[in-house]
Amino acid sequence: MLENGELLEWANVYGNWYGVPKEAVKQALDRGEDTIVKIDVQGATTIKKIVPEAVFIFLMPPSMEELAMRLRQRYTESPSDITLRLKKAEEEKRQLTIFDYVVVNKWGRIGRAVSEIEAIITAEKCRVTPREIGLA
């Protein structure tokens, strides 16, 4: 897909390749569907250049301490990997200004974060001058 130009954005994150298929996003937007793409700050920066009218929401933990606890409780990363992820999270947090909204995802309160994201989507649909979001 990368070689054929079929990805909206892509990155190697912690040794794994991730990408967003361009055609799937284009088809959903063409149908007028709300489309949510889970990406990191690097991906958001890339997509913002391609689709600047898109709505960007930064999802973050209430604190770096809680993020560290969550990462440790997953038992999927080594201590050095956790340190690397926390450092990256601090760097990403400093780039909040490229986003339109921030939602804090508190432990045990995922429903609240979802409600806030739904409220953002609703508010965007109620804009006097709607964003015209499309993908060529």
Topology:
Layout: E1 7-13, E2 16-21, H1 22-30, H2 41-50, E3 57-60, H3 64-74, H4 79-93, E4 101-104, H5 110-125
Parallel strand pairs: 3-4
Antiparallel strand pairs: 1-2
Fourth CATH level, the homologous superfamily: P-loop containing nucleotide triphosphate hydrolases
Strand order of the main beta sheet, please? 1-2
Radius of gyration, in angstroms, nearest whole number: 16 Å
Task: Give the integer mean of the pLDDT values.
Answer: 89
Strand content: 15-25%
Strand tally? 4
Query: What is the fold named in CATH at topology level?
Result: Rossmann fold
Global shape: globular
Helix content: 40-55%
How far apart are the first and last residues' alpha carbons, in Å? 17 Å
- Number of DSSP helices? 5
Secondary-structure element string: EEHHEHHEH
Structural class: alpha+beta
Description:
- The chain has one domain: P-loop containing nucleotide triphosphate hydrolases (Rossmann fold, 3-Layer(aba) Sandwich), CATH 3.40.50.
- The chain is 45% helix and 15% strand.
- It has five helices and four strands; from the N terminus they run ββααβααβα.
- The protein has helices at residues 22-30, 41-50, 64-74, 79-93, 110-125; strands at residues 7-13, 16-21, 57-60, 101-104.
- The strands form two sheets. Strands 1-2 form a two-stranded antiparallel sheet. It has a two-stranded parallel sheet with strand order 3-4.
- Helix 3 (64-74) runs antiparallel to helix 4 (79-93).
Offer a few descriptive terms.
two-stranded antiparallel ribbon, 5 helices, globular, alpha+beta, 136 residues, Rossmann fold, two-stranded parallel ribbon, 4 strands
